[in-house]
Amino acid sequence: MSDDGPEISKSEYEALHDFRHALRCFLRFSEQAARAAGLTPQQHQLLLAVKGQRGRDWASVSDLAESLQIRHHAAVGLVDRCERVGLVARSPDPNDRRQVRVTLTGKGEAILARLSTRNQRELRTLRAGLKAPFLEEGDRDV
Question: 37, 73, 95, 137: which one has the fewest Cβ atoms less than 10 Å from its Cβ?
Answer without folding.
Answer: 95
